[in-house]
Hints:
The protein has a 7-stranded mixed beta sheet with strand order 4-3-2-5-6-12-11, with helices on both faces. Strands 1-10-9-8-7 form a 5-stranded mixed beta sheet. The protein has 8 helices and 12 strands. α3 (34-48) packs across α4 (63-69) and α6 (129-142) crosses α8 (217-227). Helices cover 29% and strands 34% of the residues. The protein folds into 2 domains: 3-24 and 157-213; 32-154 and 215-256, Rossmann fold. It has helices at 3-8, 22-28, 34-48, 63-69, 82-88, 129-142, 156-162, 217-227, and strands at residues 13-15, 53-57, 74-79, 97-101, 113-118, 143-154, 166-172, 175-184, 189-198, 206-213, 229-236, 249-256. The protein has 257 residues and is α/β, with parallel strands linked by helices. The termini are far apart.
Amino acid sequence: xxxxxxxxxxxxxxxxxxxxxxxxxxxxxxxxxxxxxxxxxxxxxxxxxxxxxxxxxxxxxxxxxxxxxxxxxxxxxxxxxxxxxxxxxxxxxxxxxxxxxxxxxxxxxxxxxxxxxxxxxxxxxxxxxxxxxxxxxxxxxxxxxxxxxxxxxxxxxxxxxxxxxxxxxxxxxxxxxxxxxxxxxxxxxxxxxxxxxxxxxxxxxxxxxxxxxxxxxxxxxxxxxxxxxxxxxxxxxxxxxxxxxxxxxxxxxxxxx
Length: 257
């Protein structure tokens, strides 16, 4: 199916983000070096937290939680996609993993955690700054005193340079997928539209529409301050270096004070 065909296709179904993608998500993300990313996060947690009990928001299929468990962390993972959580629950190599369906703003708080993480620009799914502030405040409630919260954002530079009319397609696990991405520098909205269906059966096509707001560093710093957390450090991608003008991803580390 060509891009032109896709635009004219009468879609038979629409799905919530990560509902239809869930069965092929891990294979779609095989290019991500989760081991190196987990090593970076585990080192930050070691440097800024005293314990090993953490929470992961937007945990997806549990890959990062599983990696962090290998560093001795007990992880409660939450994601609003029930389909992604069902896959995460199959990761039974580590008894210290617990997964549950819940959204950013209403995840259950089970005691107090030493640390919290929210990765792969998941926070960009919150479409306004008031939601970001509310989310960070909820994380703060879940943390022990001086507990650390680590999250990352996709930068405007990254979206502008790499995702202007970006197209990707392929076959994974017997499913055909087509992705169209675009970033509007005027509204700062980044969209990803996926079309997924069993290869050879275009009548079963499902469309997922993903929308993210790409925040500036200044906006995120303001949200952290307004939430009552203290910003400790910022990092260029998964390095100890500070962010640059051309950073593609920025990690923020804040603490409950």
